[in-house]
Design goal:
Layout (H helix, E strand, L loop, with lengths): L1 H31 L2 H142 L7 E10 L4 E10 L4 H131 L2 H134 L3 H121 L4 H157 L5 H115 L3 H69 L4 H121 L1
Amino acid sequence: MSNLVANAKMDDERQVTSVSLEIENIELQATVDSQGELISRITEDLNNVQRARDYTSEIEIMGREQICMDLKEQLEGKELTIQHLKNELASSQTITEEVYKKYQSTRLHRNAKDKAIRQLQTEIQNLHDLLETAQKEKLVFVDKMRQIQNEKAGLEFDYQWMVEKLKAHQDVTDGQLTKTITSTKIKRTTTTRIDKKQTTTIQQYETDEHISPVDKNFEKLEQGFTKAMSAKDEELMKEKEALMTEFKKLQTQLNDLKRIHENYSRDLKEKNDLIALLKASKEALSRELEMLSQENQELREINEKLSTDNYQLRSELSSANNQTSTIQVQLENATKQRDYLKNQIEIITQSTTKGKEDFHKIEAQLRDYQRKMDSMTHDINSRDTLVKNLKKKITTLEDEYASRTAELNACIVTKDSLMQQKADVERELKERHDRMCEVEQAYEEMQLRKTTLQQELTELKKNLSRMSSDEDATIQAKSQLKTEILAAHKRISRLEAAYEASQQEKLELQQELAPATQRLLLMRGAYETLQQKKEVLQFDLISSQKQAVELKAYNDRLKQERAEIMTEVESCKRRVAKSDIELKEASKQLAIFKNKLDECNRQLNGSRDDVLKKQRKVEELQYKLEAIARENVQRDSFFEKLKQERRLFEEELKFVTNDLEKSKEEVRNLQQHNDRLIEENKSLHERLLNIEGLAQQAKTEKERFLRDSNNMEMSVGELRNLSHKLQEDKEDCERELYILQKKSIKLEKELEKLGRENSEMAREINANRTRHLQHDSVIQEFKRKEQTMKQQLDDALKHREELNRVKAMVVDLQKRLDATLKENEQKDNTCNQLKNEKENFKRENEKLLRDIESFKTTFDSMSREKERMNKELSACNRRSTDLEVLIKRLQDENDSCKKALQTYEVRVPGLEEGLQKHKINQSVYAQEASALKQSNTRLEKELQLMKDQHTTLHLHIGQYEDKQDAISNDLKAALGRIFELEALNEIVQRENEELKRNVDNKYRILEEQLLTADHLNADLKNQLNEARMRYKKHTEDYRTIQREYHELQTRWDGSSNDAAGKDRLMEQLRNDLKNARNELQ
């Protein structure tokens, strides 16, 4: 602009110099030629100059108007393209929103189907559990049937043994009573029912008159035995029918469950097919999303290119507007000069004096206004500096707020950790409470066992007293019972050998079970470690979920900021459109003003019109100054608002700092409380360990006591068996004694008779030698009988020694029972102590629950304060965003946000898939843990069954070998299961390690994403700073434009002064012409 003005001035000066030279030449010629020729030539030259100037100016104006029209056409075409691109952007945005909505609907549908699938899986698990319970009940029923069959076999064995014994007794009685005189033959029919078959046996007995009560007793015994067998068979049949009905019910239930399982498997297959279809649709949607994102990127690139083109066109337009303004100024100058040359010189000379005075006044007013403008600009600069300082303070406050928010997040994390520790403490308390309940149950069982043992002891004492009372009677009968006692001894030795072998096998089985129990303990420890690892993984998963939620919240914030930015962009676009309209209106007003100026220059009748125009201009300037003053007042009010907001921010920061300090103090108090709780937990843990040690001691003592009790029971059973056998032997011996007494009486009578006969025969020796030989044979027979009786007496003495040994064993057993009673009393005392400790533990638990409730109230207050702080922060963020808004920065931020959103949206499905996989793995681990628990319960039940089998072994020694094989098979299966459990444990550990690796990788990925988000924030901040710099540049450009405007005004004033000087020159020329005319005249 300044170069154009200087060129115009140089052209004017050259033209003036050329005109002055021509005038001098003309004056010289005028001295020579006449006056008329001079005047005609001067007029022709002036006309030529004016024509040349008019022609050149018209040509330049036409060319520049054509250039302006071309530029306007280009601008309209580019505006149309921009609108078309905006419409396309809006349509693409609507399409993307529809795609996102479809994606969300599909995701919700998929989540619903996942929930349905999980429900079905839970139902299937329940069905599996029901099937397992049914199978267990079936096994229990099978075991009961086996026990019943074993008992039946034992009863059959006892029955056969009794029958054999009766037959043997009958044979003995038949052999001994063949030589009796009086004998009777009695036919007897006995019916026995064995396995629903009746058999009649006809037995012939040759009994003596004295043996009739014995037969009656045997008949009564047989009748009672047959009745007991029939009752037992009926009970067995009823139990068998009940078991069969239950078995049929279980089979029907099994069939129903199988059908349900098949239906569920079909539903699962259908749902798996639906899932596959949904996955395919999801892949198609993801492909469409990728295509749309690529198209969106291409449209963005096109938009960026168009924006750059628009910027270039605007710059070209501004340059063209500047050129047009310069041309207009030149045109105005040229028209003014032409009008000044055309108008009358006399009127201008008269009006110049008044115009000068008015002009000086207006200049003075303008100087005053310029001074005011300078002061105002100085105030504006000072306030801009204030705004900058305030912005810096706002940034510092934002940094402080970010640090405080980080501290708050750390406090929240500590609170979460405390809450988790609290949950762990509560779990441990529950577990300890369960353990205490188990200890109490065990104690109650021990007490019941104690009472039963005491009752059995009383019964044993009664039996022993009865045995001691019956001993005297048995001692006399033992002398006559040698043969049967030898058989009993053989049987007892065989039973003792079998018992010792069973004890050895029991010890071997216990030795084999010891490593299994150790492995079970190791497995339990591994299971607990796995649970701890699972809890750690769950904590990591919760933290990752929290981070994902924070990222989603940050994403939502970015979306909100994007929406705000878009709204601001639209408002800025509206402002730009308004400014374009205002520019057009201003251009129209400029054209109108130009026309008015032309009219005014043509119709200048005097300087009053110029003065009026200048006054109008002054009024306009005054109006502008008033508008600027209003703007300054508004800015002052705005600055006051900013100061008030600053004060509010400072007060809020103070409140926030106070709240943070309070929260820090609360966190410290909570940490101290947590430390106390941890110490109390440690003390409780130590107590619990002591209690567990006592419980283990009690368990060991219980096991020892159970072993002793089992041994006692076995010994008691053996003693019972021995007592029953002894009673039976006693009865047999009494019977035989009775028979022998009769025989002895008979023998004494016979001996007396023989003595008499001997005396008679002594007298008649010589006469009856033949009879003497017979008597010798009888004597030999009596001698043989005496020898057998002596042998029986020796056997009875041996039996008596064995009875004394049994008495000593009974005394030892009484001593052991007394010791066990004392130990039981000690255990009762320990159990009472445990109960007291349990009550103390409950009280401490109640205290902990109260502390936890107080902690919950403080946590709720902290959460409320956090929500309030979040609201205040959102308000602060909104205010800061309202203060810092510009079009370029917003567009860049929008693009970067879209890119970030695309990256996040691309990463979100991967994260969701990872979470779903983690949840699936977690459910698998839970299922495996439940399976391990079930297997542990199975093993424990199997161990209990083994113990029951061990107890039944001593009752059924004859069937011990079969049960031993079953137990060995069960042990092999248990060992196999233990090995399987160990393998499963190793697999679970490997999977846990893989899970840890996956979680670590995901955590690293999330950290990288956070770093990228931080980088994006830094880029956004840099873009903000660049936008601020651009804003400063725009303000500086605006100021430079204002300065150029003032310079143009000054130049216009100078050009007007130059025009006045030219008018003076013209007057001088006219005066010179007049003088020349006068001189010529």
